[in-house]
Amino acid sequence: MWTIMISGFAQNGCSRGALGLFSEMLEEGVVPNQFTFSSILKCCSSLNDLRMGKAIHGWLLCNGIDVDVALGNSILDLYVKCGVFHYAEGLFESVMEKDVVSWNIMIGAYLRIGEMEKSLDLFRRLPFKDVATWNTIIDGHARNGLEITALNLLYQMVESGTLMNQITFSIALVLVSALSVLELGRQIHGRILRIGIRNDGFVRNSLIDMYCKCGLMEKASAVFQGLALDSPTKQNSVIDCDERSAASVTWSSLVTGYIQNGRLEDAFKLFYTMVCKRIELDIFTLTSIISACGNAGLLELGQQIHAHILKIGHKSDVFLGSSMIDMYAKCGRLDDAWSIFILNNVRNIVLWTSIISCYASHGQGHKAIWLFELMLNEGIRPNEVTFVGVLTACSHAGLLKEGCKYFNLMKEGYGIKASVEHFTCMIDLFGRSGRLDMITDFIHKNDISHMGAVWKAFLSSCQVHKNIEMAKWVSEKLLELEPLESGPYILLSNTCATNQKWEELQDVEDEQKELLVGFHSERLAVAYGLHSCGTLIWDMRNLRVCMDYHKFISYVYYLLNSDTILNIGNVGVETTGK
Predict the structure, then answer these.
(1) Are 331 and 248 members of one domain?
(2) pTM score of the predicted model
(3) Within a domain: 194
């Protein structure tokens, strides 16, 4: 009876409860058997409780208990999951009796720590390879970025005559997405249809994900429409919990696919259907849809979804909170973003980075730096994304000394390798501070002359400060790196060809201005916004706004007696026509 109870607790994830029952069992004087020990060792593995596991293993050895294969596998799994690989290796090679599960445990262990050669060596030594073994070795290589090797192993599996199961098909479809081998994906889809497992939730979701990542949304939608399981509702208690979860993931996969492929209207329609049909909304779906609202500047829709999340009592996490902060920030609602941050009880690096980036992107550099220092005081370790936000804040606030300090802190204090984003932030900082002379030294010192983005940031600074000679030199460097790049570089080369009249680079002739009005993106946005009379218009820009547009917008809102909030060069400015 004790063993049945302990096993039941262990199988249902109640590891601490199982350990409590085990203690009571010993106090009652009941002697555990091998099945009891196997269940308890699995609990120790799930809790990462090496001390308890070693104590049980020691008791088995001291009392001469015969360790069969199943119990030996539980011991092996304990040492692997607790990271004691040297002991696990010794146990596997010299002591224990082995079956295919034993081999799979060790192969999986090597794959998790990136020991690909050892995993393959063990795999080749295995006398009998079942489908679980093949799945482990293929999936492990795919997760470690070795998709080609994984695909070759998949071919070897087929040639060996081992039948693929649902997990194999899902792994294969992930490989198709990663390698963009769509024809193979179609073949796998055909095989799935022939053997009749298309309604398996795991396989169906993998098919949808594969077609979404390959950009074939009609195919993904067709797989979705073939969903055998009716949409579950809260009143439908007949549907199994696992089926509900699988159906929810299926809906989520298609919503996310629409967003990733830029089909926001379809994504929002499908999300609305999910809400109407009471499909379970998981964190992944909500995070994706909130992010889409932010990227599209759909504040009202984002607020409605936020209200729905609160209404259904959905438990928020740091990733959803981060998405909402980002959404409100992109829509210019800093107060709402701050409220989300304050209301989250658990504030990890993801949430801190979001709020720091929020204020940095709106030109409130001092507030962003204050938050960064507060985060450090609370013992939160920054990551590379956090430092992008901090350096952006320093750049927009013109804090040259602080920016240099944080850049050095990132590299020397936290051992974070600077990326192109960090370098461009620093160059922008030097440029905004008027220190063009420091940029050249910075590029050579950090050996980043091969990065096109670096020279683009440099060129932008030259144009702002009207340093014609330096701009010419920078543009030549940039064109050497990216000779086929269009846009501003073509404009620069054309200007150079016209007697090198660099003064004309930022000047547009009056007659040209009339023509360009119809193609001016900011003006088009304002014109569209004016269709809704009486509505406050938010004009968000991540680039500098020309003086011509300043004059244009001032006249428009004066004449029409309207309000606008314009985000210019990451600095929010409120304008009123009243």
Answers:
(1) no
(2) 0.71
(3) yes
- Residues 274 and 220 occupy one common structural domain: yes
Sort residue 83 into left (φ over 0), alpha (ψ -120 to 50) or beta. left
Q: Which of 309, 330, 346 is the last residue of a domain?
A: 346
Domain tally, the chain? 2
Residue 258 lies in a domain: yes
3-state SS string over 411-442?
Answer: HHHCCCCCCHHHHHHHHHHHHHCCCHHHHHHH
Q: Nearest-CA neighbor of 436 among 396, 470, 392, 477? A: 470
Q: Does the residue 255 lie in any domain?
A: yes
180 and 265 co-located in one domain: yes
261 and 316 part of one domain:
no
- What does the CA dihedral 167, 171, 172, 177 come to, rounded to 10 degrees? 140
> Would you give per-residue pLDDT tens digits along the chain (578 residues)?
777 887 787 777 787 887 787 778 877 777 777 788 788 888 888 888 888 888 888 888 787 777 788 888 888 888 888 888 888 888 888 766 788 888 899 999 899 888 999 999 999 998 888 999 999 999 999 999 999 999 999 999 999 999 999 999 999 999 999 998 999 999 999 999 998 887 787 888 899 999 999 999 999 999 988 764 444 444 343 334 444 555 778 898 999 999 999 999 999 999 999 999 888 888 889 999 999 999 998 999 999 999 999 888 877 788 899 999 999 999 999 999 999 999 888 889 999 999 999 999 898 999 999 999 999 999 999 999 999 999 999 998 889 999 999 999 999 999 999 999 999 999 999 999 889 889 999 999 999 999 988 888 888 888 777 777 787 788 878 878 877 665 455 545 544 444 355 455 444 344 334 434 444 555 666 666 666 555 555 665 555 555 556 666 666 666 666 555 555 545 444 444 44
| Beta-strand pair 571-576/563-568 | antiparallel
Other CB atoms within a 10 A radius of the CB of residue 142 amount to 23
Q: Is residue 389 part of a domain?
A: no
Strands (DSSP E) found in 503-562: 537-540
Q: Whole-angstrom Cα distance, residue 368 to residue 382? A: 13
Q: Are 306 and 213 found together in one domain?
A: no
Residue tagged 């004016």 (tokens): 530
Lookup: tokens for 142? 């795919």
Are residue 254 and residue 312 in the same domain, yes or no?
Answer: no
Taking the C-alpha atoms of residue 74 and residue 80, their distance in angstroms, rounded to an integer, is: 10
Which residue range(s) make up the domain with 304? Answer: 299-346
Q: Of 313, 346, 379, which residue is a domain's last?
A: 346
Q: Which residues make beta-bridge pairs with 574?
A: 565
